[in-house]
Amino acid sequence: MSLSHSSESTNLEKSADPSTDLSTISENRMDPQRRTNQIEPMRDHHTSTWRAWLFLWKFSLFRMLRLRHTIAIAFGLLLLAVLLIGLIHVRFGWDRTNFRLSRFPFHRLQMIGGNATLIALEDHPQYQKILRENAPLAVFSRWIVFFLLLGFLLPLWSLCFSVSALGNERESRTLIWFFTRPIPRWGIYLAMWLALLPWAIAFNVGGFWLICQIAGPTGQAVFTPFWPAILLGTIAFTTVFHLFASILPRPAIFGLLYAFFFETILSELPVPGTLKRLSINYYIRCLMYRPANEMKIPTESDSLFLPVSSETAWITLAIGTILLMIIGMFFFSRKEEQPEV
Amino acid sequence: MVNPQLEKSSLLHYRPWRGELSGSWRPTWAIARTALGLLSRRKLFWGLYGLSVMIFLFFFYGQYLQVFLEQRVTEENIRSGGLFPKNIKPETILHQLQNALQLNGSADTYANFIWFEGYIVMVILALIGSAAIGNDFHHGSLPFYLSKPIGPFHYIFGKCLAVGIFINLITTIPAVLLFIEYGFIDTWSYYWDNLRLFLGIIFYGSLITITLSLLLIATASWVKRTMPMVMIWTVMMVLGRMIQRWLVDGLHLRKEWRLIDIWNDLYLAGHWALGTPHEALRPPWQMQPSYHAALLVIGICIVTCIFYLRKKIQAVEIVA
Amino acid sequence: MNRSTSISPVTTMPPVDAMPQEFPVSEKAPPFNNPTKNILTPNLVGNDSLKQSPQNPILGPPILEFAQVTKSYGPVIGVNHVSLELRGGITGLVGANGAGKSTLLRLAGGQLRPNLGEVKVNGLSSWDWRAKKYIGYCPDSDAFFEEMTGFQFVETIARLNGYKKIDTRERTERVLEQVGMKDRAYRRIRGYSKGMRQRIKLAQALLTDPVLCILDEPLSGIDPIGRQELLQLFQSLAEAGKCLLISSHELEALEKLTNHIIIMVRGRIAAVGTLTEIRDLLANQPLAIRIDSDQIRTLAGLLVQSEDVVEINLQPDFLTSAKSATNSMDRSDGRNASLVVRVINPLHFFQQLSRWAIEECIEIRHLEALDDSAHAVLGYLLGGSGKT
């Protein structure tokens, strides 16, 4: 062990000898008040991984506030939706029956033969269909819930928060401060997902609630049966986009392609078949269609849509979410962050 | 002045640059080239470009198919080749092609083609915006450009040039290729008879280039990061379209509400340039605002972007 | 710095251009002459990391161990077949840009996983999150939570280490004091100078009293006075039992700080040891030596006969140096000039010179190896460029 000894003595000599260059310079230049570099024993403080993880979750949750532009645009979208729905509610209402009837031959018959013709036509299947499809609940569900919320707002709000949580840390190259802490990487992945989830839920479920409130009694009637599907859909979408954020270089672009080219197109394919079962949107619709049918809200034809039962949809979404989380945690645990990213 | 003897005697010495500085507009090409190189190195870009090429190929072979069917429409059935030959009625396919896509070398063909490229343009612009422009603001490389002997507008022009090249690669150039293709499968006189169409394609492409590149640079300089950029472009190109259809087709509000969809405005301006009469716009049941209204909205958009960018670039020391 | 007292075996390599690619650059040496077994210092009271180590570090396993580690980025090899062990003290890591220093440090800090081999910290894989308790990592990247103040940043990092809120403040204040940032800690990081940012990075690395400090270019951007303060801090840390692995382009600074240097060339460890030791073993590379004597021409005549000497230069200019200036001897006869000779086998040459000095009664007033500085050594190892 002569090497160790000699090296040690050399270095110790260096630091102990006041005549060496280093200490001389330090002695001469440093202000006595600034000579704070002497190491004194630090008190032993207990550390806890669980506490660190909890702090990381809380920190990430509030760090989302930094996404000023994203939050501003998300709020802007919500405001736009609220204004649009408020306009429809106040000016047009949700009952489109009269408007639709006015464009069909029934209307002309009524003009010629009076209301008696309508009574005669009440049992006509086409007339019944118009009544069903233009009832307030049906119109609100089709326009706002299935078209605007499921087709646009839900994927976009989920995408923006999911991608921003990890993506922004990566763009700012600040992930290193998490990776150098004694927290397992899968824990970091989980904490960040749990931190973004309240934001996504706040916008998706909260936004849905607000929209329903603005729409008056029609909207309020729709909120209760549909919100669980929106919640589960939010969780599933955020899991997918969080996975994208952890493994893909441009998760926002991939997420956009997924949301608007895969999910929307696939789930609304006007053909039968089971391909659409690969999309999250399909299961959310399955969850919604059951209460919709109970409320006599017309949905897509069963022969075309081939829905699964609510239970199957719940289980599929839950298992899919858990599976995607595990896959994400696995990949994130093994992924190296390159400094130039 | 360097002493020639000294120059001969030693190889390593200070040698002043003897070239001449080119004008301020020359570096704009360098700025554009840098942005082009940056994007062309990304696999994702080529994947998206592949999608746009698929649309082009669909139109390209669709035109062939249309002419092929028109020539054989006298036959009752066409027997297709392949492993499992089928007999097809040519009228059916012809009718669908004519109604849906107008694959007949008319103004509708080129306007429809560019319309269908809209979603790909949206995604690619979001990518370009964050990678080639937003990063300049976010990572502070804008002062690097502006420290050179160029003005802010040279920088904007350089970036517009890059964005324009990408937009034209997806829209104008394939549309011109379709135009050339149709001349080959029709007769060469098609080119001279339809010169207005060719000029219309160029005008339409130029208008898209100017409008979208300015809009992109303005949004990228505002939000900088990828996700907000994606949100803005999605709202402009997807939600805008959804809402205008909702308001006009669903609620039967005034047709001017369609002007909120910038891609639709450009489509109308394109039709104006291609010489389509307003009443001939398709589908016939879809009420469209006047060409002049669309052009006015585009003009306002361009001017607003220029003013915003002027203000933004002048404040670069704060931005960076 | 007394280099002469440090005589220890080192591993070294011929210049890269002469190196066969298959040749393992740094084989793990047997325990008795392992060059990387550096300073071993007593334990520190109150040191969490050391307390958690079951063994006494002096006798126990190495703090940082690289075993046949290779790391590649696609077709580019970042670190190639590296083996080393560190047990304490300060180790400097030098090499040209792209030599693999940062990759080696990231591997040590658990930010990268090796493609081949193992990196262990206190017996745990450095990639393992539990190993992070022992590591204080100061990265080279300049990314922070910019909206925070320096204090908030370090406090946040402390909380991310799992300290209680009540303990965090004490630790944060303490560590900010150590790096000389206590009075500037309440300004936003966004407005910090580069030197201040470096200090904050250093502070977060020292928060947990880590047994292994991995510092990537910690002196970059620090002013000369601040540099001395930090060098002193590193010394203190080493004395307190820490193992410091420091990469730097500031070779002079590293020379002042430690005599234990790892030289990396193209992903391999080209040499490990003190600069003098490394230089001594580079026997094939001519070493420039200055000799001051009264009988310089007589000595030159003798030196010409030596096969070790490849070049002799008479250097009267050295008379103006501070040491020689005091000498009042006549210069005109050249008796007081200096010789600068280049020799290819320094050990043999010094023995021969000693013999001549005794046999021919030649008084040698000054003997100095001119190019055993880090730059000269690097210049040779990097194939002559010496650039870092």
Largest sheet of chain B: 2 strands, antiparallel
Spatial extent as radius of gyration of chain A: 30 Å
- How are the strands of the biggest sheet of chain B laid out side by side? 1-2
Compressed to H and E, one letter per element, the order of chain B equals: HHHEEHHHHHHHHHHHH
End-to-end Cα distance of chain B, whole Å, is 40 Å
- How would the global form of chain A be characterised? elongated
Q: How many strand segments of chain A?
A: 0
Distance between the termini of chain A: 44 Å
How many H/I helical runs of chain A?
16
Strand % of chain B is under 5%
Assembly state: heterotrimer
Q: Helix coverage percent of residues of chain A?
A: over 70%
Please identify the structural class of chain A as seen in this structure: mainly alpha
Strand content of chain A: under 5%
Backbone shape of chain B:
globular
Instruction: Summarize the main sheet of chain A.
Output: none
Can you put this structure into words, describing what you see?
The complex is a heterotrimer of chains A (341), B (320) and C (388). With 341 residues, chain A is an all-alpha fold. Chain A folds into two domains: 50-61 and 68-91 and 136-334, no CATH class; 96-134, no CATH class. Chain A is built from 16 helices and no strands. The two termini of chain A are 44 Å apart. Chain B has 320 residues and is mainly alpha-helical. Chain B has 15 helices and two strands. The model of chain B has no long low-confidence stretch (mean pLDDT 83). Chain C folds into two domains: 3-281, P-loop containing nucleotide triphosphate hydrolases (Rossmann fold, 3-Layer(aba) Sandwich), CATH 3.40.50.300; 287-381, Alpha-Beta Plaits (2-Layer Sandwich). In chain C, strands 1-11-10-4-9-8-7 form a seven-stranded mixed beta sheet, sandwiched between helices. A four-stranded antiparallel beta sheet of chain C has the order 3-2-5-6, covered by helices on one side. In chain C, strands 13-14-12-15 form a four-stranded antiparallel beta sheet, covered by helices on one side. In chain C, a hairpin with a 2-residue loop joins strand 10 and strand 11 (268-273). In chain C, helix 3 packs across helix 4 and helix 4 crosses helix 5. Chain C starts with 10 loop residues before the first strand and ends in a 7-residue tail after the last helix. The relative contact order of chain C is 0.15. The A-B interface holds A 67, 69-70, 73-74, 77, 80, 84, 88, 92, 143, 147-148, 151-152, 156, 159-160, 163-164, 167-168, 171, 249-250, 252-257, 260-261 and B 42, 44, 48, 119, 123, 126-127, 130, 138, 222-232, 234-235, 238-239, 242-243, 246, 250-251.
